[in-house]
Specification:
Length: 483
C-alpha cells in the first residue's frame, strides 16, 4: 500500500504533516493511532511490503509481561525488580513511566481490539495476545494475536484519514525551518522523497540486524539473528545525526539455540535451550562455566555471545535434565534436535563426553566434580536443580540468538530524544527497541519487549501530537478520533 501524503513543502516554514512515525510494529502503530486520537495528522513509514508491517512484534509469542511478572503487579515492586535485574542501570524516569503506564496501556490495547488471554500458569503468560502464536520453528505469523491486532490498528488508522507509506525506507533526518524536521525516504525504483513534519517518532525496531552495528555496539559478531531482518539501525542513525545520545549497552534479548541453526532454518527461532541450561551448565572449550546459568536465560545467552570463544560453547546436561526439561517447549529439544540431525553428543562421564566434543577433559571433569560437591549455599551458587549426577551426560553445541538489543537512543520519561547533556531534542521521539534505558546492565537485565513498545509508543504518540499543528483540527486530514 502506498498512499501519498500532501507534497512536502521543501524549504517552506510549514510542515506537510504533524507527526511522522518510522516503523509499523507495535510501538509505531500505537504511536500513530494515539497521535491521531489527539487530533494530529499522521504519516506512518514502513520499509517492508508486508502489511501491517514486518518486525519482531508480529514474530513474537505475544506475551505482555513486565520483567516476567504479571503487568498488574504494583509499580513499586516492578521498579525494584528492574533495578535489581539491571544492577541499577535502568533510567529512573523511563522506569517510572513504564511501571506507571502498564495498566492504562493494557486498557488502551483492549479498547482498540486486542484480545488478551491467560495462557498457562506462568506469571509471564498472564496477558497474551490471542490467538496465541505457539513456539514453533519458522516465521508463520499471519492470523495470530499480535498480527491481528496490528492489522486492526492499521485499518482504524487509515479509515480515520491516516497515511501509510509502504514500502518506503526512512534513512535521513534533517532540521527544517519553523521548528520542524524533514525525513528522507527511499522509494521503490531508486526514487527519493522528503516529508516535513513537526514531530518524528523513531520506532523501527533497533539495530540488531546490521552486522556492523552489532559488532560495534554489542561488541560481538558471533551471534545468530533470531528476529526480523528489518531492524538495521536506520532510526538510530537518524537520531544520532540529530544529536541524540546513546544508552551504551552491549546486552541483548535473545535465547540459546543449537549451533546448527546457523545453517538449518528448522532449528530457529525455536527450540530454545534456556530451560536445559538452567538445569545444566554452559562451558567453553576449556570446560569451565561461563556464568551462573540459574539467573536468567537472557543472561546465559549474553555470556555465550561475549565469552572468549562463542563458537566453542557447549551446554552440558545429565539424563534427568534431558528427560525432564528437555521435553519442555513446542517443539521440545528432546527429541526434536535428534529428529533434525542436530548435534547431541552422549558420554558416560565428563572426561568421555569432553573427548567427544573437543572440550578439555580435565577442565570439564573438574567443573562437574566441583558442582557435584558444592553445598546448597555455595558461592557462586550451583546451577539449577540438578547436579549432573545421572549418566549419561549430553553435550549440545550452542550459538547465541539475538532478538533485539537492550541499548538504543537515550530518551526521557516522555519518550523525547535527549542529547549528550541530557536535554530533550524538540520534536524527536523514540519507542520500542529503538530506545534505550529500560533494560541492560552487566547481567543483561530484561523487562519485556512488547509492553515497552506499547507503553512508549503511546507516550511518544501523545507527546508528539502536542507539537504546534499545521492546520486547525477541523481542516486537517487524519484528525478524526479513533473509536
Amino acid at each position: 500500500m502506498d498512499t501519498h501524503c500532501p507534497p512536502p513543502t521543501g524549504d517552506g516554514p510549514e510542515p506537510s504533516v504533524d507527526v511522522l512515525v518510522v516503523g509499523a510494529g507495535l510501538a509505531g502503530w500505537c504511536a500513530a493511532v494515539r497521535a491521531q486520537q489527539a487530533g494530529a495528522s499522521v504519516v506512518v513509514v514502513e520499509r517492508s511490503r508486508r502489511r501491517p508491517g514486518w518486525g519482531n512484534s508480529v514474530l513474537s509469542g505475544g506475551a505482555l509481561h513486565a520483567a516476567l511478572r504479571d503487568p498488574e503487579t504494583s509499580p513499586d515492586r516492578l521498579r525494584a525488580l528492574v533495578r535489581e535485574l539491571t544492577d541499577g542501570r535502568a533510567d529512573e524516569a523511563v522506569l517510572r513511566t513504564w511501571s506507571e503506564r502498564l495498566r492504562p496501556t493494557l486498557d488502551w490495547l483492549v479498547e482498540h481490539g486486542a484480545q488478551l488471554v491467560t495462557d498457562g500458569e506462568a506469571a509471564h503468560r498472564a496477558r497474551v495476545f490471542a490467538p496465541v502464536r505457539r513456539t514453533e520453528p519458522g516465521r508463520r505469523y499471519a492470523s495470530f494475536g499480535v498480527w491481528a491486532f496490528l492489522r486492526g490498528l492499521a485499518d482504524e488508522f487509515t479509515a480515520a484519514g491516516g497515511t501509510l507509506r509502504q514500502p518506503a525506507r526512512a534513512r535521513r533526518l534533517r532540521p527544517a525551518p519553523g521548528a520542524a524536521w524533514q525525513v528522507g525516504l527511499d522509494l521503490p525504483g531508486g526514487a527519493t522523497e522528503w516529508i516535513t513534519s513537526r514531530a518524528v517518532v523513531l520506532a523501527d525496531g533497533g539495530f540488531q540486524a546490521d552486522p556492523g552495528l552489532r559488532r560495534d555496539l554489542l561488541d560481538t559478531d558471533r551471534v545468530l539473528l533470531r528476529g526480523a531482518g528489518t531492524a538495521t539501525g536506520d532510526g538510530l542513525r537518524m537520531g544520532r545525526s540529530a544529536g541524540a545520545a546513546l544508552v551504551p549497552d552491549t546486552g541483548f534479548y535473545g535465547h540459546l539455540l543449537v549451533r546448527e541453526a546457523r545453517q538449518d532454518s528448522r532449528l530457529w527461532p525455536y527450540p530454545i535451550l534456556d530451560p536445559l541450561a538452567a538445569v545444566g551448565i554452559v562451558v567453553g572449550g576449556d570446560g569451565r562455566r561461563l556464568v551462573d546459568e540459574s539467573h536468567h536465560g537472557v543472561t546465559t545467552t549474553n555470556a555465550v555471545a561475549h565469552g572468549p570463544a562463542p563458537d566453542g560453547c557447549w551446554l552440558i546436561v545429565d539424563d534427568d535434565g534431558w528427560r525432564t526439561e528437555g521435553r519442555i517447549g513446542d517443539p521440545a529439544p528432546n527429541p526434536y534436535l535428534l529428529d533434525c540431525g542436530a548435534t547431541v553428543l552422549t558420554g558416560t562421564g565428563p572426561a568421555d563426553l569432553a573427548a567427544r566434543a573437543g572440550i578439555d577433559p580435565a577442565g570439564l571433569s573438574a567443573t562437574v566434580a566441583q558442582l557435584r560437591a558444592a553445598p546448597e549455599n555455595a558461592s557462586p551458587p550451583r546451577t539449577g536443580r540438578l547436579r549432573l549426577a545421572v549418566p549419561p551426560l549430553r553435550a549440545v553445541p550452542l550459538v547465541a540468538g539475538v532478538t533485539f538489543a537492550l541499548g538504543g537512543l537515550r530518551v526521557d520519561g516522555r519518550a523525547r530524544l535527549r542529547d549528550a547533556a541530557g536535554q530533550p531534542i524538540t520534536g524527536l521521539y523514540a519507542a520500542g527497541a529503538t530506545m534505550g534505558g529500560l533494560h541492560g546492565g552487566p547481567r543483561a537485565g530484561y523487562a519485556g519487549g512488547l509492553l515497552e513498545a506499547a507503553v512508549f509508543g503511546l507516550v511518544a504518540g501523545a507527546e508528539a501530537a502536542r507539537q504546534p499543528r499545521l492546520l486547525p483540527a477541523a481542516g486537517r486530514p487524519g484528525s478524526r478520533l479513533s473509536r
